[in-house]
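Q: Could you fold this chain for me?
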Amino acid sequence: MLSNPCANYREEQIEDWLRAAAVDRGREYIRAVSELMWRRNELSGKVRGSAGQIY
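A: Sure. Below is the predicted structure, expressed as structure tokens.
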């Protein structure tokens, strides 16, 4: 799906992959995300918040 970390993706493409509701929910976390990193075909990062478990 997101195999090329150098590629640009349009919001519509991401909504097709993840559904619009997930994208809307993700917008609430923009300021809380840091240390984004591509590892192979996986995008990861740290998210500040109150949840004790990764989800």
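A (continued): The chain has a mean pLDDT of 79.
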